[in-house]
Specification:
By secondary structure, the protein is mainly alpha-helical. The protein is built from 20 helices and seven strands. The termini are far apart.
């Protein structure tokens, strides 16, 4: 292990600790948005050995966002890749550590890929840029699927480059296996993202099929076949939960939640259009300009220079990696929803590419090596100031982000939607535990006042407290009658620690 490898490993371990700090300090290790709540529900169901559970009596009273009731069964709408991994964290009691551990692995893979296509200096610098990125920290501190997607995307890119674009000699079995499995699992986790990540490499694969030798063709086909076989498990999962392998559970929550354009796609009258796609994309990218590295509107400034370094040095493996952000933006034009709260998170899996190309731009400007094996240049006279000026500028930008932008951005995510762990405390004190087992009918003024309490309830409704979203006296009485063994309590979130035996 080289000195650069040891530094990269230290960066990766630091990424684990920093993102866990974000998880605990700012997100309090609980879900805040509907996607997170649904992922946790699915993970807990899988941890309990089930993909579906029987629908509860009065399903609308047991509302869980993006968890659907269909044919008498309840299940989450999301593909099983991320919930299955999160379920492992649930079983081991380390749910809050799963994404931070993935974040550390993401930094390590970014370095390894940078070392392979640009050299150790660029790989290390890309690791630093990633670790200090508010975009990276926000998403890695959440319970969303994107950090897993980042690891799978970077591992796929590294395996592909290692096998087909970054070395001499025939392809090898292990990188072929890794590339196929990572791309397939990515399709099981974030299907549209998998298409975007695979697109530039797929074009390269077509070139290899046309111009490569028979061994290369065989390995390219093996990657595609293995990825396709794993991705096809999505159809098996859809059959297991709906009885129809072609029925997308997304459409069971919102019938218009589809990919594409035209009537019936998205909420707009007339459906999703290219105009709406451009508006969504522009808005997401505007947020991303700031969140990528926290350099105000200038997080992108080294990307053009990095691309010039790729072209001038004819670094074709790096060109494949640089194509990932572009292809992700293109494929997500077909999705009717934009992203901004956690940054442009639909493009998150491209952060390894953006960090590497930016780092290559910085290195090229400074006169540092930008290809593996390049020697360090020696400058004479006034040219000695070149690397010093670039280093000072990048240091200034990073420190400005860490002092001014990232703390404010993270603080803005604290208590998101006014959902706090403190909201759970009334049910964790001794006086409350003495009331269990209880069915708690919640009378919220806002949906989030009920949603935060789902952290104390599992999919099997066998926790000390289970929570009902009040839908009126008749519906509440019908649900209460289905649980005769439980004490019936009424809870008004604006009056915590007060449990009533009858509604106001």
């Amino acid at each position: 292990m080289s000195r650069a490898d040891r530094l990269a490993l230290a960066l990766s371990l630091l990424a684990v600790l920093v993102t866990y700090f974000v998880t605990e300090r700012y997100f309090e290790a609980i879900p805040h948005i509907e996607d997170e709540i649904a992922y946790v529900w699915q993970a807990e169901a899988i941890a309990g050995g089930r993909l579906t559970v029987p629908s509860p009596p009065g399903p609308k009273s047991f509302l869980v966002p993006f968890v659907v009731d269909y044919a008498g069964q309840r299940f989450g709408k999301y593909p099983p890749g991320w919930p299955a991994l999160l379920a492992l964290g649930v079983r081991l009691g380390i749910r809050a550590w799963v994404n931070p551990l993935l974040a550390g692995l993401g930094v390590w893979l970014t370095y390894r890929l940078g070392k392979r296509i640009f050299g150790e200096p660029v790989g290390l610098l890309a690791g630093v840029l990633t670790l200090t990125s508010p975009f990276f920290l926000i998403n890695s501190g959440s319970l969303l699927s994107h950090p897993f997607g980042l690891v799978l995307s970077a591992a796929f890119a590294l395996a592909w480059v290692d096998n087909f674009a970054g070395r001499e000699g025939p392809p090898r079995a292990l990188p072929t296996l890794v590339a196929g499995l990572c791309l397939g699992v990515l399709a099981l986790t974030r299907p549209l993202t998998a298409i975007g990540v695979a697109l530039p490499f797929g074009l390269h694969g077509l070139y290899l099929l046309a111009r490569g030798d028979w061994q290369t063709r065989r390995h390219v086909l093996a990657v595609g076949a293995l990825a396709g076989a794993v991705a096809a498990l999505t159809l098996l999962w859809q059959y297991a939960v709906t009885g129809n392998s072609l029925l997308n559970p997304y459409t069971l929550w919102w019938s218009y939640d589809k990919i594409g354009f035209g009537p019936g796609v998205g909420r707009a009258e007339g459906g999703h259009t290219l105009r709406l796609a451009r508006l969504n994309t522009r808005f997401s990218l505007q947020v991303g300009y700031r969140d990528l590295f926290g350099w105000a509107m200038f997080s992108w400034i080294f990307l053009p220079v990095g691309l010039l370094a790729v072209f001038f040095r004819r670094n074709w493996p790096a060109l494949l990696v640089a194509g990932v952000p572009v292809s992700l933006v293109l494929v997500y034009l077909a999705y009717w929803v934009g992203s901004w709260l956690f940054g442009p998170r639909y493009y998150y899996e491209a952060i390894f590419s953006l960090a590497l190309v930016s780092a290559a731009g910085i290195a090229w400007l400074a006169g540092w090596p930008v290809r593996p094996g390049d020697a360090w240049r020696t400058f004479a006279g006034w040219k000695k100031a070149r690397p010093l000026i670039v280093t000072a500028l990048v240091t200034f930008l990073i420190l400005t982000n860490l002092v001014f932008y990232t703390p404010v951005r993270l603080q803005g995510m604290r208590g998101l939607y006014e959902m706090d762990r403190a909201d759970l405390v009334p049910f964790q004190i001794e006086q409350a535990r003495e009331l269990a087992p209880a069915l708690v009918i919640v009378h919220p003024k806002r949906w989030m006042d009920y949603g935060v309490l789902l952290e104390l309830q599992d999919p099997f409704l066998d926790t000390p407290f289970i929570f009902v979203y009040s839908r009126g006296p008749n519906a509440d009485r019908e649900v209460a009658a289905a649980f005769p063994e439980r004490r019936i309590l009424h809870y008004y979130p604006e009056e915590p620690y007060t449990f009533l035996t009858s509604p106001k």
